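Name: 3-deoxy-D-manno-octulosonate 8-phosphate phosphatase KdsC
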Amino acid sequence: MSAALTAAERASRVKLMIFDVDGVLTDGGLLFTAAGDAMKSFNSLDGHGVKLLGEAGIATAIITGRNSEIVAARAKEMKIAHLFQGVENKLAVFAELTASLDIGADACGYMGDDWPDLPVLLRCGFAAAPANAHPEVIARAHWVAEARGGHGAVREVCDAILRAQRRYDALLAAACGA
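Structure predicted for 3-deoxy-D-manno-octulosonate 8-phosphate phosphatase KdsC:
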């Protein structure tokens, strides 16, 4: 019988990293103007971490239950090619996405914070959560960030994946001009 994989071993296998939005890429707060327009706040560190995954050849995606032009704009800015909004069944979208990219579930990571994320978190190879995720999500995650959603949790998981795949140092050296 083989021992269970560590979080770092799981992260080293990630070829596709998927993120929820509210509570992961944002702090989960829902802000509305007097006109009823939604507003969201994103963390620039998180965005750069997602871009670094892309530079390392790791595909990225968003699967979220809400529809938002703001999320579409942010996904484009972060160069996320696979955006799924207004999703009621995240597991079905996960299955379609992994099949279309020919990537097994064990080579996928997912960061979520609440019960609607559990079906994907339970099937992907690397399940991650922000520090303020629901306790049931944290209990089932392979890896939990020190930061809260919208406050650097995504950057932490991106860095963890890059370190596990031994790509972090080369990307850092390139950023330093080496």
